[in-house]
């Protein structure tokens, strides 16, 4: 991972560049990093604010020999890698909000965008986008989201060395990915649940069909969130929003 690394001062989105490189046949582990994105993409067609030099804006090309149903595991794997590295490098206590937001002090500091190209029942390639708010200061997070988003600097009080941080993410990613390919998802699942936000606690879950109170139990190998509602019924959720507090 990161043997082929492209670093750009400014791009629209590192995701698009990696899709392009994938189509040109670039190998597994190719990485694109930018200092700034002017059209950063978040999940659900949202924008991802990516100001110059303030964060980790990168996309990794993966070519796993796996069926498409296993793609969500790669996202969960990446979330555990990010949580692990933040945990090791600071006194911060990161948690993972299902499916793949990294929170510190209940605010989002990082997100993951997984895009897949599949043919029949094989993954052709995956573009794994990682966005981490690192060195933004108070007032540099867009005001619309300032109540729920933050940066590592704002939460830790320290400035982070972005290049060093990227290096540890890539090396931890490589180790974790290799052991996932060799040994399967079980260990990742345990790691994920160790960092899982509100696991074992009561929250409100909104789905397309209904809103209900439930206790979060953990995740399944297919990436689903497992919860138990107040009637004791188990729910497996593939798409939902989690709320807490009032
Ligand atoms: C989310 O939480 O909505 C996912 C955010 C993913 C942002 C990263 S930044 C690098 C890569 N390039 C993009 O345009 N998006 C991802």
UniProtKB/TrEMBL annotation:
E.C. designation(s): 6.3.4.15
Gene: birA
Family to which this protein belongs: Belongs to the biotin--protein ligase family.
Transcription regulation recorded as keyword: yes
Protein name: Bifunctional ligase/repressor BirA
Keywords, alphabetical: ATP-binding, Biotin, DNA-binding, Ligase, Nucleotide-binding, Repressor, Transcription, Transcription regulation
Complete-protein stretch covered: 80 to 325 of 330
Domain BPL/LPL catalytic: start-end pairs: 1-181
Residues binding biotin, per UniProt: 37, 108
Biological process according to GO: protein lipoylation; regulation of DNA-templated transcription
Function: Acts both as a biotin--[acetyl-CoA-carboxylase] ligase and a repressor.
Superkingdom of the organism of origin: Bacteria
Catalytic activity, as annotated: biotin + L-lysyl-[protein] + ATP = N(6)-biotinyl-L-lysyl-[protein] + AMP + diphosphate + H(+)
GO molecular function, one term: biotin--[biotin carboxyl-carrier protein] ligase activity
EC main group: ligase
GO cellular component: cytoplasm
Top-level taxonomy: Bacteria, Bacillati, Bacillota, Bacilli, Bacillales
């Amino acid at each position: 991972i990161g043997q082929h690394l492209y670093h750009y001062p400014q791009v629209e989105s590192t995701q698009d560049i990696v899709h392009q490189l994938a189509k040109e046949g670039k190998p597994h582990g190719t990485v694109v990093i930018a200092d700034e994105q002017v059209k950063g993409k978040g999940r659900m067609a949202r924008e991802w604010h990516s100001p110059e030099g303030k964060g980790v804006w990168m996309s990794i090309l993966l070519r796993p020999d796996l069926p498409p149903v296993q793609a969500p595991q790669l996202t969960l794997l990446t979330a555990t890698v990010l949580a692990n590295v933040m945990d090791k490098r600071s006194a911060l206590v990161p948690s993972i909000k299902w499916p793949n937001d990294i929170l510190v002090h209940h605010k989002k500091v990082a997100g993951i965008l997984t895009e897949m190209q599949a043919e029949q029942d094989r993954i052709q390639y995956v573009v794994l986008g990682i966005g981490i708010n690192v060195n933004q200061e108070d007032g540099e997070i867009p005001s619309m989201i300032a109540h729920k988003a933050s940066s590592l600097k704002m939460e830790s009080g320290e400035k982070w060395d972005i290049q060093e941080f990227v290096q540890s993410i890539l090396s931890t990613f490589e180790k974790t990915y290799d052991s996932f390919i060799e040994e399967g998802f079980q260990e990742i699942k345990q790691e994920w649940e160790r960092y899982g936000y509100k696991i074992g606690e009561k929250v409100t879950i909104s789905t397309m069909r209904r809103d209900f109170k439930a206790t979060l139990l953990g995740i399944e190998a297919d990436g689903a969130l497992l919860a138990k509602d107040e009637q004791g019924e188990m729910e497996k959720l593939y798409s939902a929003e989690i709320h807490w507090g009032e």
